Amino acid sequence: MSQSVDRALTLLGSLGDGPVSLEQAAGSLGVHKSTALRLLRTLEEHGFVQRQPDRRYRIGGRVLSLAHRALEEIDVRQVAAPYLAALSARSGYTVQLAVLHDGEVLYVDEVAGPGAAWPSRIGRRAPVTGTAIGRVLLAGLPEDGVREQELPSELAAVRLRGWAAESCEHREPVTCVAAPVAGSDGRTVAACALSAPASQVPPTELTRMLPELLCTAEAISLAYGGSPTPRWCENRCGSRPAGRASRTSGRASAVRRR
Predict the structure, then answer these.
(1) What is the pLDDT along the chain (258 residues), one digit of tens a residue?
(2) Which residues contact 132 (CB under 8 A, 6 or more apart)?
(3) Burial class of residue 204 in the structure, from the number of CB atoms within 10 Å of its CB (0-12 exposed, 13-18 middle, 19+ buried)
(4) Rounded CA separation 133/141 (Å)
């Protein structure tokens, strides 16, 4: 590890105990104040450190944002795991969980179905605009978080119906349907999807599994800390919450009427 990187990480670690002055930062590193100041200014430029009115430095918002995202991604994967396995067992298809990371889809978990014809996508990335799971994640962003080139009218339709479908995902012979997983504040934190080889399963067949997918997405949301909302399919997903009407029960009912 380079000396500069080592010093920067050591400095960030010391800031975890509370704000420090320039003199304290230099002392903790055993360097001259000019060296500590250069490090602090570099970290400040990248949002990892913030200078207070009293001229002391504290952890910046970038660190908190990265830490929150990392914990969120790990936690949602752990919470979702049994629900993904159950959905794959019921449907016979591959079930995936993905999050939005650095403007791309990042697959964080997968339970392969018996007919899976592709290697595991765990850890792989995909474009947000070329996948159903990506469109669901984009649709869950605030309006100002979606760039103009990301088809806001199409995302509005995804928000309205609560799911997205795609055929031949990002140039692979795969068909997919996806639904959002919400956190405690109602914000989309992940997306759950059913995938199958397009040569074996037509999109219309996979769409018939939407009630099961919506049920699973809701169950994961509830387990992750989302607001309790009764579901028409609560017996299948294993959740029996009590409370107000479901966000997605209307969508699922509409699917059943198709």
Answers:
(1) 578 888 888 888 888 778 999 999 999 899 999 999 999 999 999 989 999 999 999 988 888 777 766 656 668 888 899 999 999 988 888 999 999 888 888 899 999 877 666 677 888 888 887 788 888 898 888 765 555 445 566 777 788 778 888 755 445 567 789 999 987 777 888 999 998 877 777 767 777 888 889 889 988 888 887 655 544 344 444 444 333 333 333 333 433 344
(2) 164, 165, 166, 169, 176, 177, 178, 193
(3) exposed
(4) 13
- CA end-to-end span of the chain, whole Å? 59
User: 3-59 maps to which CATH number?
Assistant: 1.10.10.10
3-state secondary structure of 104: strand
Size of the chain in residues: 258
Say which CATH class 65-257 falls into: alpha beta
Q: Where in the chain are all domains bearing CATH 1.10.10.10?
A: 3-59
In angstroms, the Cα distances linking 74 to 2, 63, 111 are 29, 17, 16
CATH 3.30.450.40 in the chain is located at 65-257
Q: Which of 131, 170, 136, 169 is nearest to 155 (CA)?
A: 136
Q: Quote the CA–CA distance of 53 and 37 in Å, as a whole number.
A: 16
Asked whether 167 and 187 are in contact (CB, 8 A), the reply is no
Angle at 88 between CA 187 and CA 80, to 5 degrees: 35
